[in-house]
Amino acid sequence: MNLWLSQLKDPVPDGLKTPAELARFELSHALPDPAVTLAEDASLGDGYRIEALDDGSFHIAGGSTGLLYGAYRLILDRLCGETISDSVESAPKYALRMIDCWDNPDGTIERGYAGRSLFFADGKLSWDPERIRELGRLLASAGLNVLCINNVNVHFPAQLLLEDDLPSLALLAEAFRPFGIRLMLSIDFSQPMRSGIPTADPLDPVVREWWKKTASQVWAAIPDLAGFLVKADSEGRPGPFTYGRNHADGANMLAEAVRPYGGVIVWRCFVYNCRQDWRDTATDRPKAAWEHYAFLDGQFADNVILQVKHGPFDFQVREPLSPLLLGMKRTNLAMELQLTQEYTGHQIDLYTMIPMWKELYEELPADNIMSLAAVSNLGNDANYTGHPLAAVNLYTFGLLAWNPETDAETAVARWCRLTYGFSPAEEKKLTDLLLSSRGIYEKYTAPLGIGWMVNPHDHYGPNPSGYEYDLWGTYHKADRNAVGIDRTAGGTGYLSQYPETIRKKYEKPETCPDLYLLFYHRLPYTFRMKDGRTLVQRIYDDHFEGLEETRVLAEKLLSLPFPEPDAGVIRERMEKQLYNAREWCDIINTFFHRLSGVPDERGRKIYD
Ligand code: GCV
After folding, report:
1. Distance from CA of residue 16 to its chain's centroid?
2. pLDDT tens, position by position, 461-514
3. Residue 254 — left, alpha, or beta (φ > 0 → left; ψ -120 to 50 → alpha)?
4. What pTM did the predictor assign?
5. Residue from 149, 273, 314 whose mutation best tests the ligand 1 pocket (most atoms within 8 A of CB)
């Protein structure tokens, strides 16, 4: 199964070495006519220039990878019924367009909803070469170029990737090379201690030497390894704090070790107190990343990239843009998105992400970041993403990483056309349904930016107080009068981490955009929204509407002529989504009704 490339009938053969060779193969099989000539121009790198010549043929210039991206551009345009009439030039906005897999050596995937790992089984690297070539083709055709294959929570034996498993890893890197995809590895900050060194202190000369030697061995085996990804001092992972050092000390030490090979250190900023006492009101989790990193701006080596989750919490359905992405002007930044639907429906509920990403970009100057990363939604299910329609998130992420100005509707419509080849009316219908799916999901889950009302740990289905008295710093504090946390200057002060324009937009409940209202404010249920409804009435209305819109979504979606096996899978998942939406609607409404005692103005059924 080739998803959006299903019209490419000839599988990529074994034995191709470079992206330019692959470009020639793809063009000769998928686009034998008209003729296409290729000219390698290393100065263009990943970029390409395509010229339509008078005799109907095309000429592509680009670096080796640029030729491949140019070839896919021509092929996919042709499959979409489009043609380049004059000439186009294109180059990616971000040099690193990364997919981070949270795969474990035993073949499980943390927060994975599409089967088991494509890279590991039984404690070691293990892959099906044909599937790797198919995956490589999918990723390259979407413009993606870095793949971190192992979980940021590096559990043993993942450490062996830097040790005994290196030869095997080198073979996997070779398999991805013709697709222009470079591997990255998540590493364990305390790994030197496996070699008998009593510390992992980043300023200890023995530790520094160990990393240098290890890097030299790793890059000798895989000369184009992109770098290391590090989760340090986060949710129990080891890091520099143990030794009284800060994150610049930790990241820069590793950066020095990988510098001779052109490697980068991608250092995650997901650092917060995950052992918080719910009684402690002085700590507000969204403030944590800024407190740990903002003062270090300008102190990171130039081959360190700080990878920041798009919001200050953890991939909730609605979060504001992380203030770090706006405030660290002298640091290389990557924004981290999450394709795997941990909090957004487990690839059971339909949730198309590009509308959310476009909203983030409304506040994020594209130049503030240098890379875009996303947690993978891939697994070894036949269709790679479990829900066939979840593949739209992988494809459109690639388009956005190439060009953040990509229009959401155009991107989704292109995916629909490539994947299903429906009639124009059906394509429009599917595009609209996909684009509406995020808003629908948002309506029936946690209200107005509050987040976290999910079943703990598993993160699917409603549980309004599941995290309320837990250690994770994720509280809504709903009582009989009010709900939410005041994060303005008069409250926890989180909003003060932003530039003034943003502070002004959110600081007053009367003018704060509705969908962020309970993220920033604690408000009584009687609070009057801009449209005159009370807060609690808006919560009831959204949930009833979300459920009803899910019903309509299901009906319309299931009327489309999906081919098997997709049709069966979509039907089965849609039924589960309907059940989930009903659970959410009834439980959230009952929760607020019981607390507030306020009846629904429209007399709809809310359970006692
Ligand atoms: C890989 C959340 C998830 C964890 C994940 C973590 C992270 O807490 O629930 O599964 O761990 O984020 O991004 O590191």
Report:
1. 30
2. 999 999 999 999 999 999 999 999 999 999 999 999 999 999 999 999 999 999
3. alpha
4. 0.98
5. 314
